[in-house]
């Protein structure tokens, strides 16, 4: 089947547990989603991506799947999912599911079988290795020195089977052995299960990790967290495996968006360019490191230049060859206003950040709550946090840093900041649930930051997102135009233009707490330009107030 033109899409991401509780048990669910579909459509997006909604023990909140072909009972039933799917389609919204196939839950029946021994049909579904025997001292050693991405070793010993299994993430997420053709057949059946139901595509979790180097060689011993990466990222059989999955997606005209941590433009192009590409877009991480090193836990001051370098590297790098996935937030990153914006200029910086990324070339993703400017939460003790990555990092640094210092790191870095309930109104618990206790802490700023309040305010962040998404959708220049950055060295200003068939759109965004002026070289100066959008009630070309964003259009002379 022919693929739809995915390039026009903008996508709203739902992390359902915190989106909206429809049946009053304190946990977000597909009943709540159903009730909010009109709201989602009203944003002007074209698709919904659901973070995993499958049965899961929630060691990593759904990214540890225990059954690929069902719905988590907390979220509803298959029937309820079909209702959501059907209604979403009626509203013109595509539905994209998370496909988590690098690993399963350790409670997945395949793993439960695989543990039992070396001679059952599932024994080779995972990556098992014998312990390396040591002469004296400890009984045995890990099969290699790889670290898990959630800190600690990437191997766990299973006493039942007497072997170690590989887990690149938490120990409850054993990696599947993708070299086993039966595993790949299972995955294809999973894809067909959802595609037959009418799902429009997949966001494919850490998909560039699924092919491991057969010998699993040791990585650099001094490199924490990512030392095994050269042997599992973009691995030897990755193109073949993805080609097989692509063939299934093609039958249905489905879209495929891959997540690719630590990638670069060159590797990305292998996947996303050309007619025979194996993925349509890649979710890369470069621009999420403008205030940190490798992970948000290793925080440093925000650098606009670092952000712009990352933006432009991908805009120029994929130009004419591939299509970008544009995002500032998702369930893995703290809230962007708290990171790259300013709480003092909350509304201005929230809208400025929107303008900074929504008009680049690519498909924009908006994460639940981002469109109303939700901010990070600050809990007192590590026990209150639930995210396995936060907890492991906190523990890993215990010898090196004080408790206070580590809590500061958690406050700026925890993925839990993106996982607090969506703030719908100023009703108790932000209108997220009618239960007395929601499953997780509500950010106490909900009386000021909530959907209902922003609905009524024409200048709100919410309504800015609506205007911006509508503008993008209605403009071929913003959809398809070439990207060009001005003043790349400025530490206070981000400016880029998009050009298409003689039309130019200029996006000017201040990242500064004070007023500033700007001037373009004569040849680019937008004579007679029309203001398309701004986040202040008026706008003058050449001057910017704190976090002011302006979008101008004109025709080239
Ligand atoms: C991806 C997901 C993240 C998860 C990890 C392991 O990065 O987005 O939430 O923890 O993969 O599945
Ligand atoms: Ca519920």
What attributes characterize this protein structure?
557 residues, single chain, Immunoglobulin-like, binds calcium ion, 22 strands, 26% helix, binds alpha-D-glucopyranose
Notes on the protein architecture:
With 557 residues, the protein is an alpha/beta fold. The protein has a domain at 479-554: Immunoglobulin-like, CATH 2.60.40. It contains 15 helices and 22 strands. α5 packs parallel to α6 (238-252). The longest helix is centred in the middle third of the chain and has 17 residues, at 181-197. The mean pLDDT is 96.
Quick overview:
By secondary structure, this protein is α/β, with parallel strands linked by helices.
Overall geometry comes to globular
Low-pLDDT runs: none
- Secondary-structure arrangement, i.e. CATH architecture of the domain at 479-554: Sandwich
Query: How much helicity do the residues have?
Result: 25-40%
CATH fold-level assignment of the domain at 479-554:
Immunoglobulin-like
Q: Using only CA atoms, what is the Rg?
A: 24 Å
Find the structural class using helix and strand composition.
alpha/beta
Q: In the CATH hierarchy, what is the class of the domain at 479-554?
A: Mainly Beta
Q: Output the number of helix runs.
A: 15
Side-by-side strand order of the widest sheet: 11-10-9-3-2-1-15-14
Largest sheet report: 8 strands, parallel
Q: Going by CATH, what is the homologous superfamily of the domain at 479-554?
A: Golgi alpha-mannosidase II
Question: What's the total number of strands?
Answer: 22
């Amino acid at each position: 089947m022919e693929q739809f033109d995915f390039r026009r899409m903008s996508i709203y991401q739902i992390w359902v547990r915190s989106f909206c509780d429809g049946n009053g048990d304190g946990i977000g669910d597909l009943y709540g989603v159903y009730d909010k579909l009109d709201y989602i459509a009203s944003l002007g997006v074209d698709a919904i991506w659901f973070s995993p909604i499958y049965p899961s023990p929630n060691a990593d909140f759904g990214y540890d799947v225990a059954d690929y072909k069902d719905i988590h009972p907390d979220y509803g039933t298959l029937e309820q999912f079909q209702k959501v799917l059907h209604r979403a389609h009626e509203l013109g919204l595509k539905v994209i599911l998370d496909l988590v196939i690098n690993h399963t839950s350790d409670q997945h029946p395949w793993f439960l079988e695989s543990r039992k021994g070396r001679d059952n049909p599932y024994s080779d579904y995972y990556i098992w290795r014998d312990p390396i025997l040591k002469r004296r001292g400890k009984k045995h050693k890990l099969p290699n020195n790889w670290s898990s991405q959630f800190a600690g070793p990437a191997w766990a010993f299973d006493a039942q089977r007497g072997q170690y299994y590989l887990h690149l993430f938490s120990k409850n997420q054993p990696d599947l052995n993708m070299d086993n053709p039966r595993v790949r057949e299972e995955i294809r059946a999973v894809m067909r299960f959802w595609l037959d139901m009418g799902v429009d595509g997949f966001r494919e979790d850490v998909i560039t990790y699924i092919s491991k180097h057969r010998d699993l060689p040791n990585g650099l011993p001094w490199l924490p967290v990512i030392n095994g990466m050269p042997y599992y990222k973009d691995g030897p059989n990755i193109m073949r495996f993805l080609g097989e999955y692509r063939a299934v997606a093609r039958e249905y005209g489905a879209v495929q968006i891959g997540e690719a941590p630590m990638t670069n433009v060159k590797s990305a192009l292998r996947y996303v360019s050309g007619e025979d590409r194996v993925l349509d877009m890649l979710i890369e991480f470069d621009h999420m490191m403008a205030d940190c090193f490798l992970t948000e836990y290793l925080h440093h001051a925000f650098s606009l230049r670092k952000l712009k370098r990352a933006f432009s590297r991908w805009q120029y790098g994929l130009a004419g060859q591939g299509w970008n996935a544009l995002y500032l937030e998702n369930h893995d990153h703290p809230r962007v206003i708290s990171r790259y914006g300013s709480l003092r200029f909350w509304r201005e910086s929230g809208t400025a950040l929107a303008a900074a990324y929504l008009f680049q070339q690519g498909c924009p993703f908006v994460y639940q709550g981002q469109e109303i400017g939700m901010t990070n939460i600050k809990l007192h003790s590590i026990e209150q946090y639930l995210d396995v990555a936060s907890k492991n990092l906190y523990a890993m640094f215990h010898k090196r840093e004080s408790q206070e210092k580590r809590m500061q790191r958690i406050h700026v870095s925890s993925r839990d900041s993106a996982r607090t309930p969506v703030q719908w109104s100023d009703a108790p618990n932000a209108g997220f649930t009618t239960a007395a206790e929601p499953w997780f802490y509500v950010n106490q700023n909900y009386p000021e930051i909530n959907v209902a309040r922003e609905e009524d305010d024409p200048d709100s962040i919410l309504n800015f997102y609506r205007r911006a998404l509508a503008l993008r959708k209605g403009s071929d220049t913003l959809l398809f135009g070439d990207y060009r950055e001005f003043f790349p060295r400025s530490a206070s200003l981000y400016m880029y233009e998009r050009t298409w068939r003689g039309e130019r759109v200029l996006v000017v965004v201040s990242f500064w707490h004070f007023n500033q002026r700007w001037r373009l070289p004569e040849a680019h100066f937008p004579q007679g330009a029309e203001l398309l959008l701004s986040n202040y009630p008026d706008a003058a070309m050449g001057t910017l107030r704190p976090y002011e964003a302006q979008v101008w259009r004109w025709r080239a002379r």
